[in-house]
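Supplementary Methods S3. Input chains for the assembly prediction are listed below.
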Amino acid sequence: MTTQAQVHSTEHVHRDDVGARLGMWLFLFTELILFGGMFLVYSVYRFTHQAEFHIAAKELNTLVGTFNTMVLLTSSMTMALSIVAIQRNNKRLSMFFQFLTILLAVFFLVNKFFEWSAEIHHGIYPGSETLLNEKSGKILFFGLYYVMTGLHGLHVIVGIILISVMMRFTSKGVVKHDDYIKLENTGLYWHLVDIIWIFLFPLFYLIT
Amino acid sequence: MKENNVQVEHSHGYGIYILVWLGLLALTALTVAVAGLDIGRFTVATAIIIACAKSYLVLTIFMHLRSESKTFRVFVFVALLFLVISFILLFADYSFK
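Predicted structure tokens for the full assembly:
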């Protein structure tokens, strides 16, 4: 008994990977409510302004949207692959995949930047004169478009920061083959960002 | 060891993720193609169903729900159920206005 207690007091480091993952999932549920609420607003306005939503969506670039969808799906894969690599104790490969994920995320944001720039250039942004002269359905569509893709973009930025920290952790050995819960939870966050985009894409770009 | 709840080993290799990625790209192509067709009120339904299929793949494979314990799956199910209930209640109201 005494020896066991001594072992515990000296060597026991609290570690609960399942608990950590469950905690992450609980956080993801709050994100689900955050975006879910916006999807509720979207669905009501689309229901009440069907024709105007269809016309407004024609102004979005479907090609850029499709391309960005593929970029984000690919980044989700590289994130998942980085976890397989660390499980197999391949530190360099894991860091390479994390780097690829960041690169793709930045690429997504660059595309988004050009997309928004083009729209703002055409005078379409919340509160713009061009937009305020349009029908209410179009104003609502672009209001939702900017808020929802903007909030999603903010999540992409947070994801980039998190994965950058994970790259440092991996290089320092904080994230390693037998202890990679931090990387795993970062992955969960990144995949959620991907799932949100999976719904944003058809609802904004594909309703023409 | 047991009380520490240490990471369970996910036995997935690299291959399954690449396969799922290809599936996701195929579904993206499908949803873009279907959006071009004129199928009236089924357009939204098809887009949502394809998006759900894609999310299912991401949740089960990329997010490892497939190899998690039942607790996780029940949690996710309940969370999604409440979102669905919100939509049903909202449209139960809006559809009859």
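The mean pLDDT of chain B is 87. The two ends of chain B are 59 Å apart (CA to CA).
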